[in-house]
Amino acid sequence: MEPSVITEFTPWASLAGGVLIGLSALAVMVLFGRIAGISGITTGAIMNASSDWLWRIVFIVGLVAAPVVLKLFNLEFLGEGTSYPSTVSSNYVGMALAGLLVGVGTVFGSGCTSGHGVCGLGRLSARSLVAVVSFMLSAAITVAVIRHVL
Amino acid sequence: MSFKQNVLIGLAALLCGLVFGVGLVVSGMANPAKVLNFLDVLGHWDASLAFVMGGAVMVTLVGYKLFGSLSKPILLPSFELPTRQDIDKPLLIGAVLFGMGWGIGGYCPGPAWAALSAMAPGTLVFLVAMLVGMACATIAKKRLT
């Protein structure tokens, strides 16, 4: 939607961040016995008041607080060149459509990048592998159409 | 569950969420420009985000195996894990719709939460729409099945 911004190739920072995400997902499995899928955690937090509600809502608080905590401890440099400065589209119609598609798609598809990707692939789930390939292809085609066709 | 257990669950969940969120920020997943350039194989392709998935799956692959013999999780009474193996239409259609949204906005659910504190209007619009989509789809899914 926006003119594309050129970003640097950051294999080390991205690998390190990925390892942290994996460690968190592993901790969620060992501590709570659940899949650390953010779409599932979010849907569960807003749609049902089971005994799982507490850890889900607090987990999301942690997600939201992460950049604030980094700033508080002067650790913002850890995201320098990867997530800072960040570029978010200001095409609100596009962002609303994107949000709706992500919300509806993750409920019907039973997961997102974390649930199917990080956790599902780690559990060697065939359903997750099919989901990951499908959403990656769909996302790449969408970007190709928006940036190179339209 | 006792008060003490709930406090323990809360603290553990907060820490897990924080580590996950820091991972998203450090890796670049919380920056839509980075995500869209990763998905843009025909343009200025930025392959970095393949390393995020690679690093994370490396840990879960080995870690789940290592702890696979646990009879119950440490803080909750039992494991609750997906058991389905079938590839059905909702899985495929859902994944394709999710991919389209990811490709348009550059956010998947985790990064959108981790980017909220910067209060970019585009992030807020995305998050509200995502929650509405999740709520509607959950209700629709219940009616359909």
Summarize the structure.
The complex is a heterodimer of chains A (150) and B (145). With 150 residues, chain A is mostly helical.
Helix-and-strand structural type of chain B: mainly alpha
The succession of helices and strands of chain A, N to C, reads: HHHHHH
Percent of residues in β-strands of chain A:
under 5%
Count all strands of chain A and give the number. Answer: 0
Helix-strand pattern of chain B:
HHHHHH
Radius of gyration of chain A: 17 Å
Give the overall shape of chain B, derived from the CA principal axes. globular
- Assembly form of the protein: heterodimer
Instruction: Return residue spans of chain A where pLDDT drops below 50 for at least 5 consecutive residues.
Output: none
Helix content of chain A: 55-70%
Helix content of chain B: 55-70%
Q: Structural class, from secondary structure content of chain A?
A: mainly alpha
Our Rg estimate of chain B from Cα atoms comes to 18 Å
Mean of all residue-level pLDDT scores of chain A: 94
- What's the helix count of chain A? 6
Of all chain pairs, the largest interface belongs to: A-B, 118 and 116 residues
Keywords:
heterodimer; A: 150 residues; mainly alpha; globular; B: 145 residues
Question: What would you note in describing this structure?
Answer:
The complex is a heterodimer of chains A (150) and B (145). Chain A is an all-alpha fold. Chain A is built from six helices and no strands. Helix content of chain A is 69%, strand content 0%. Chain A is globular, with a radius of gyration of 17 Å. Chain A starts with 10 loop residues before the first helix and ends with a helix. With 145 residues, chain B is mainly α. Chain B is built from six helices and no strands. The longest helix of chain B is centred in the first third of the chain and has 25 residues, at 3-27. Chain B is globular, with a radius of gyration of 18 Å. Chain B starts with a helix and ends with a helix. Classes of the chains: A mainly alpha (150), B mainly alpha (145). Chains A and B meet through helix 1, helix 2, helix 3, helix 4 and helix 5 of A and helix 1, helix 2, helix 3, helix 4 and helix 5 of B.
